[in-house]
Design a protein that fits this description.
The chain has helices at residues 3-11, 71-80, 88-98, 113-126, 146-161, 197-205, 222-227, 231-240, 256-265, 293-303, 328-340, 373-380, 402-409, 426-473, and strands spanning 22-23, 29-30, 103-107, 139-142, 170-172, 192-195, 216-219, 246-251, 270-274, 281-287, 308-312, 344-348, 363-366, 390-396, 415-416. It is α/β, with parallel strands linked by helices and 474 residues long. One of its GO terms (molecular function) is ATP binding.
């Protein structure tokens, strides 16, 4: 029994508020129960969210400098996708790609990076002279994870469906069947391919794809592609692609590895850096002892029953909901349920910290500070997306208070949350501590009993052997 599994029984038996999902050890999905009286006396006074300006924009699509979009694309973006104005990263990255130049883009998550490369792809593939179904790949997007690739494919399909030409983006995504080839439903039209590195490399090795006429290559979340150990696979893929192409490298953080990749794979790239935390995002931290974290989190969830939370944990050991050890089918079901819900709580590790677009997330609660400070940016980027308001709260132990100073040095300033009044009463804190101690004592006693059942027969065997030895020696 872990601290969290014990707390599920003791802290959440009866309240109406229900965190989103919990995976039992047997693999069944079930909602976590509600809150009990242990946290009802906690005092929390949260102010209403301050109204902030919407996400920064860079004018209408007709104001794109250095390039012009086809009218049908402008209408699709404005009317179908409901994006009448560009974001700064779109205004800066689209013209170079349309002008056949390489780009290296560093922008925070939720800044509109996906459309900044899908729009040039649509214009290049649909409105060229050879705008007809073809088995030759003309645009290739490589994403690090199945979830991100699936999300990019969904956005691309939504955009292309609003355009003439019957362009269908083809997903070539790992984690499904063993075959590297796509199914037959695409009728051989592979002009736009969205793939994960492993499945793409397998398809190239097996000769399924014709990339000789590739025009646009996009590496999305390039820093994570390299962090996940795909550098060798990427090198193998890049050697198979034609050199005369335009390439876009998109990343939320500019690491040394990404810079090396840009030097090796790009030709005089146009560099775009949009480093601005959304004005609608309130980043705060709260000093709380480890033994009180659970009570503080529980009351915060109970105080906002109609809002959507993402809670990040350091590992998947305490509670399993969305992490790398889940099967792909369960991960997809969890993502779909939470994305379509109006409220609830998603408990996850950093598998859901990068690139995943979950709509209408009100709060990001980090139960543990991330080991990699760059992960903080990716976590808080799940809220305050596309101009919405959002809140990010980080729990820090008293010994971790310098973490806030470190975030300030890394240009991620956070304000203190203590003045908002989270303060468990001594009675409740003692009650929680007592329950935790009882749980730990029960665990220790169970281990001793289990060890005793094994050691006792072994002691009897050794005793018999010693007696036999004495008799023989006597």
């Amino acid at each position: 029994m872990t601290l969290f599994s014990f707390a599920q029984d003791q802290l959440f038996p009866s309240c109406e508020v229900r965190p989103y999902i919990h995976l039992t050890q047997a693999g069944r999905e079930q909602p976590l129960p509600g809150l009990c009286s242990l946290v009802r006396n906690l005092r929390l006074s949260l102010p209403k969210s301050h109204c902030c300006d919407a996400m920064a924009t860079a004018g209408k699509w007709t104001a794109l400098q250095g390039a012009s979009l086809d009218k049908t694309i402008e209408q699709a973006l404005t009317n179908t996708l409901s994006f009448p104005r560009m974001t700064p990263v779109q205004a800066a990255a689209i013209p170079p790609l349309l002008s056949s130049k390489d780009v290296c883009v560093e922008a925070e998550t939720g800044s509109g990076k996906t459309l900044s490369y899908l729009v040039p792809i649509a214009q290049t593939v649909l409105f060229e002279k050879r705008a007809k179904p073809s088995s030759a790949v003309r645009a290739l997007v490589i994403a690090p994870t199945r979830e991100l690739a699936t999300q990019v494919h969904a956005v691309a399909k939504h955009l292309f469906d609003a355009l003439p030409g019957d362009l269908v983006p083809v997903p070539l995504i790992g984690g499904g069947t063993a075959s590297a080839a796509p199914d037959d439903s695409f009728r051989g039209d592979f002009r736009v391919l969205i793939a994960t590195p492993g499945r793409l490399a397998a398809a190239l090795n097996q000769g399924f794809l014709n990339v000789a006429k590739l025009e646009v290559l996009v590496l999305d979340e390039a820093d994570r592609l390299l962090d996940m150990g795909f550098s060798v696979t990427l090198t193998d893929i890049l050697t198979r692609l034609p050199r005369q192409r335009r390439t876009g490298i998109y990343s939320a953080t500019q690491t040394a590895e990404v810079e090396a990749l840009a030097r090796a794979g790009l030709r005089n790239p146009v560099r775009v850096a949009i480093k601005r935390t959304p004005a609608s995002l309130q980043c705060r931290y709260h000093i709380v002892s480890p033994r009180e974290k659970l009570a503080h989190m529980a009351y915060l969830l109970a105080s906002h029953p109609q809002q959507k939370f993402i809670v990040y944990l350091m590992t998947c050991a305490p509670i399993c909901a969305l992490h790398g050890k889940m099967s792909q089918a369960k991960r997809e079901r969890a993502m779909l349920k939470f994305a379509s819900s109006k409220n609830g709580v998603l408990l996850c590790t950093d598998v859901a910290a990068r690139g995943i677009d979950i709509p209408d997330v009100d709060w990001v609660l980090q139960f543990d500070p991330p080991q990699d400070p760059d992960a903080y940016i990716h976590r808080v980027g799940r809220t305050a997306r596309l101009g919405r308001e959002g809140n990010a709260l980080l729990f820090l132990a008293p010994s971790e208070d310098t973490y806030a100073d470190f975030l300030f040095v890394r240009r991620c300033p956070v304000s203190k949350f203590s003045e908002l009044g989270i303060s468990p009463s001594p009675l409740n804190t003692r009650d929680l501590t007592t329950r935790q101690n009882v749980a730990r004592h029960s665990m220790r006693r169970a281990r001793k009993e289990k060890r005793g059942r094994i050691e006792k027969p072994m002691a009897m065997i050794w005793s018999l052997k010693n007696n036999e030895t004495k008799q023989l020696s006597g």
